[in-house]
């Protein structure tokens, strides 16, 4: 076994394929900076050929990062490879990840290609990628459902064409540890290469085995592990990198392997992804769940108080769980607020800080302790409002009769034009959403609505997520407020704004 494992983070690519997750440009940049701070070796920043947005953010991340290798995904298409080249060429260490499926079901049902055609495509496109990049990673998609002889042939073809990193995706989360480990062993024995090859593991969690399979790959020669923070990703998600990292650390006696990760930045990284993805970390999640370091039973508490090691195999401090947090309150001034922003890792311009401080005072009036989560929500909420074409200006509700509510909603755009309409509905949220639909002249289907309380207690802020569908298009929005009704309206306005025509100066229902 090697003594060092590279950590390849694909939160911004495979992680963003989580249903309902879509990071904004600023969020992607912030996530990439946090991943660099955490110490990952490679960031898969996106799939540049898939959209202009992905291209722009891979390019911005490449320009911004100081140490980390930045890679982008490409199908076996010259135009995809060109897009990755253009997007990553300014990175300190650019690389490319080229893939094509190799399993019989993908060849016949998806690609409509023969094995010979797939091999020719691998040869042509890996060679083409190699003419642009020093480091080319190749993935035979659905490798674990590919017959071993053809998998070896595909990998040999990629290596002969210049790939120096071979990634083995368990695309559908189908394999089990012993089988997956054996694939790595066989490839390292069978594939002939003039240059050293890095073998990489990429697992999905459909059977809950992604981390176990990744650990088995390490035991059989993999020196790179791909995954995401909190294990987000397609369907059941990807390998949770924090679990691999802590597994290696806590069981150093067995693995004797180091990573470059700053383990005490793990919790902070997890919280950032959870916030931006709008996916709460389950309480019982390994390493980063809230219960991971709490002890409930009397026997456990007694043992823990006598010696923490009786029931704790790692300390909360190891992963950066803070035991104390100094909340702000109504008497906290501008300086305390600025210090808190700095401490939480935000670099915010003076103008935005002014409006955030005003909003902070508004929260502090309603809440005794303004926690770090409240501050994060404040900043996230203001960023969402900034990027939305319309924002909530004011809202009035009135009970009509027999459960019917009436809502008057006023929205405003960035030029401060206001737009007003009213509607009724069987409940306050429906009445509000109907009124927003009338203003924006859209009628989407509400396919997801979720409320989270940001902190404990009756005075907690609410975080509401909505997902809307109009024809083929799905969009989402998030709203934060002390009041659930306002948070629900803000979330809906952000989502529905993406379906509406952009604001014009003369809109029906306009009042100013
Ligand atoms: O799961 C998968 O097969 C992938 C590839 C693109 C590597 O994400
Ligand atoms: Zn994947």
TrEMBL record:
Residues 5-267 form the Pyruvate carboxyltransferase domain. GO terms for cellular component: cytoplasm. CDD domains: DRE_TIM_IPMS. Its EC number is 2.3.3.13. It comes from the Bacteria. SUPFAM superfamilies: 2-isopropylmalate synthase LeuA, allosteric (dimerisation) domain, Aldolase. GO terms for biological process: L-leucine biosynthetic process. Its cofactor is Mn(2+). PANTHER family: 2-ISOPROPYLMALATE SYNTHASE 1, CHLOROPLASTIC-RELATED, HOMOCITRATE SYNTHASE-RELATED. HAMAP family: LeuA_type1. Homodimer. This is 2-isopropylmalate synthase. It comes from Staphylococcus muscae. The gene is leuA.
